[in-house]
Amino acid sequence: MAAALSFPFYFLLFLCSVLLPSHEAAFLPELPNLATISFEEGYTQLFGDSNLMLHGDGRTVHLSLDQRTGAGFASQDLYLHGFFSASIKLPSDYAAGVVVAFYMSNGDVFEKTHDELDFEFLGNIRGREWRVQTNVYGNGSTAIGREERYDLWFDPTEDYHQYSILWSHERIIFYIDGIPIREAVRTREMSGQFPSKPMNLYATIWDGSIWATSGGRYKVNYKYAPYIAEFADLVLHGCSVDPTDDTPVCQGNDARVYDSIRMSPDQQATMSKYRVKHMTYSYCHDRVRYSTPPAECTLGHETKSFLPSGEAKFNYRRHRGKRYGHSSSLNSADL
């Protein structure tokens, strides 16, 4: 990558190291030549015409949703494994029905056997926080939705926060502000449903009124439009692929660098702490959808913390009018 890490991205890493104790530092992978890029260097607009706007010499992208259309962009290249990241600031105020997505997919190439890795941000009514959902699809296995939903320890509308995906041959790790929140490991039980084909990276904003907020109870209210999602610190650090024959550009050690990344015991502990406190739904505990849990699910004592619907029990006890504090800084006590 030609560009150096942008100031907000670098400052976020510094802030994490200062505010978090050493055993709970930001856990971004150590990768060679990790750098941010401009929109023109790595992306192309998908839809939305003037609802996609570039700022800051093309290093910040605003996607807006109004009654006419949403907007979206995609990476110019396909990738087979890598580290993909963006700092995102979500729309504020009433955002019910609004969906902002940062994800990888090859659905336009493999219509019935596509792979997908999702960050989906689900808006809410005023006074209730945005929710974050992750999902993993492999080889067209849409009948098994591997969704997990979480709340956050900060207000994602006040400032930029970093959302990252590491994808290797062996594992997928989702990060928020350098904190690992989910790991999906290739297992015999998942068989061919582990994502294994080249994918593009996408970012979109769109109207998800029919399902996004309380199962469609609350719709997008265009009185509050335009809804604007801001993307900065764009990172495409992966093995690009020739679309004509699916040949990866990187070989040897360059191709294996992502497979070498493992979480340490401290990282595993921090991830577990986040999941216990902030996970609000898990497909592994959803007995309504799956009378028998999907084969890769390993259930333990945490089962008692979930309802048969897969919703976390604490989610029904918490104060529904919760407001965030004014500080958006990463703080280990908030995890």
UniProtKB/TrEMBL annotation:
Q: Give the similarity note.
A: Belongs to the glycosyl hydrolase 16 family.
Q: Name one GO molecular function term.
A: hydrolase activity, hydrolyzing O-glycosyl compounds
Q: Does the keyword Membrane apply?
A: no
Q: Where is the GH16 domain?
A: 21-231
Q: In which compartments does the protein localize? A: Secreted, Cell wall; Secreted, Extracellular space, Apoplast
Q: What class of enzyme is it?
A: transferase
What modifications follow translation? Contains at least one intrachain disulfide bond essential for its enzymatic activity.
PANTHER family, per database record: XYLOGLUCAN ENDOTRANSGLUCOSYLASE/HYDROLASE PROTEIN 8-RELATED
Which positions carry the signal peptide feature in this UniProt record?
Answer: 1-25
What keywords appear on the UniProt entry? Apoplast, Cell wall, Cell wall biogenesis/degradation, Disulfide bond, Glycosidase, Hydrolase, Secreted, Signal, Transferase
Q: What EC identifiers does the entry list?
A: 2.4.1.207
Question: Out of the domains of life, which is the source?
Answer: Eukaryota
Function of the protein: Catalyzes xyloglucan endohydrolysis (XEH) and/or endotransglycosylation (XET). Cleaves and religates xyloglucan polymers, an essential constituent of the primary cell wall, and thereby participates in cell wall construction of growing tissues.
| UniProt-recorded name of the protein | Xyloglucan endotransglucosylase/hydrolase
